[in-house]
Write a structure and sequence with these properties.
It is a single chain. This protein is an alpha/beta fold and about 375 residues long. Among the domains are: about 160 residues, 3-Layer(aba) Sandwich (Rossmann fold); about 100 residues, Diaminopimelate Epimerase, Chain A, domain 1 (Roll). The chain is built from 13 helices and 13 strands. The protein has a seven-stranded mixed sheet with strand order 2-1-3-4-7-6-5, with helices on both faces. Strands 8-9-10-11-13-12 form a six-stranded mixed sheet, with helices on both faces. Helix 5 runs antiparallel to helix 6. The C terminus is likely disordered. This is Oligoribonuclease NrnB or cAMP/cGMP phosphodiesterase, DHH superfamily.
């Protein structure tokens, strides 16, 4: 059964994704930084699943449940009850935020305490295929491991005990835990690596981040100190990148890991979408990654102008034909002719599709699509 995961964009959210991938084949992971964006993201998945012909599993981890999300849970359960037997989906929600319990009660869903496990509550959504669990005493990474029977197809081949202990200690801020210093070091490694090497949205992203976390967990299990983890972080990243770049064309081992990965990323259409005028749009890329990759894309002749839309609504335009400033002016911005910025009218965006929906009509009102988009003709290797 196809498995899709929506999880938080922090160490615990990625820990939950790493555990899930160790127990099942996860086809796609959606990382959501802001709880206010969970509702719209979940709504998009619910609409897709309502049209899906085959049963799927939707796993949601480490996401604080706000009013819109809870309304979405009710809609999902109602949608699923209408589906024929044999085509019903499975929803698994694993959360550990006390605020979620408060929100659920406000929306008329009363949590029921598990008599066998302190801190664990179950919420009935009126559909036996929908499981909603909240456990205030553990992190979401540990919840994903403890409740893996709800979605797993096999047992993990790797010992995850050190990963679970480190993330549990730091996410719940258990400073008296022996695993807390290692958890802090793991958190530092995570934030240093999550956006500036392989961005969210690229097929390599989950493999890259899970590889780092698992390598660090092995080191912690073998007794590495936080200082050891810091010193070895470079080798962890290099080793994972070496595996990813094994078949990449034109790889240059004399470059830094970021530079080598940027060359591979620039050969892929996964991070950019062509707009009607041929401008390529990316969503939520780290500014350094955007600069490196967009420059390589324009040097290769795949686009003359690119734009990166951040979640908080800022836009960064780059060009090699003097049109970046023209684009930025349409979004109340300014800057240089080939490097300029602006802001979305709405003030924020929650996904690539949302960013395109807001940028396209302003940048290209009533303009027909280009006959040949820059990436439609891309026939070389794709990362």
């Amino acid at each position: 059964m196809r498995l899709i995961q929506i999880t938080h964009h922090d160490l615990d959210g990625y820990g939950a994704a790493t555990v899930a991938a160790a127990c099942a084949a996860v086809e796609r992971v959606v990382h959501v930084p802001r709880y206010s964006d969970v509702g719209p993201v979940f709504e998009d998945e619910t609409k897709r699943l309502a049209r899906a012909g085959e049963s799927e599993i939707l796993l949601m981890t480490d996401l604080g449940l706000e009013e819109q999300t809870i309304a979405g849970l009710k809609k999902f359960a109602a949608m699923n009850r209408r589906r024929e037997d044999g085509r019903k989906h499975r929803l698994v929600v694993l959360d550990h935020h006390a605020s979620s319990l408060d929100q659920l009660r406000r929306q008329g869903l009363e949590p029921v305490a598990d008599p066998e496990r302190a801190g664990l509550s179950r919420i009935d959504l009126g559909d036996p295929d929908c499981t909603l669990l909240i456990d205030e005493n553990v992190c979401a990474t540990r919840m994903t491991f403890d409740h893996r029977a709800l979605f797993a197809t096999h047992e993990p081949e790797t010992d995850l005990s050190a990963l679970l202990a480190a993330i549990d200690a730091v996410d719940l801020w258990r400073k008296d835990s022996p695993a807390f210093p290692g958890g802090l070091a793991l958190d530092e490694l995570f934030w240093e690596s999550v956006s500036s090497f392989v961005p969210v949205g690229h097929p390599w992203h989950e493999t890259f981040m899970a590889g780092l976390l698992l390598a660090a967990a092995v080191a912690l299990r073998e007794g590495a100190s936080p200082a050891d983890l810091e010193r070895r972080a470079l080798s962890f990243r290099t080793d994972v990148a070496e595996t990813l770049l094994r078949d990449a064309p034109d790889d240059d081992r004399a470059l830094t890991t970021r530079m080598r990965l940027a060359r591979a990323l620039a050969c892929s259409d996964a991070l950019f979408r062509p707009l009607k005028d041929g401008t390529l749009l990316s969503f939520a890329l780290d500014s350094g990654t955007f600069q490196r990759v967009s420059d390589l894309i324009m040097d290769a002749g795949r686009a003359k102008r690119v734009v990166n839309v951040q979640r908080m609504g800022t836009l960064s335009f780059r060009s090699n034909d003097g049109t970046a400033l023209d684009g930025a002016r349409l979004f109340r911005g300014g800057g240089h002719r080939d490097a300029a910025g602006g802001r979305l009218q709405s003030g924020s965006a929650f996904s690539m599709a949302d960013a395109i929906a807001q940028v396209e009509p302003v940048l290209n009102p009533d303009k027909p699509p280009e006959a040949d988009s820059p990436f439609a003709a891309l026939k070389n290797w794709k990362a």
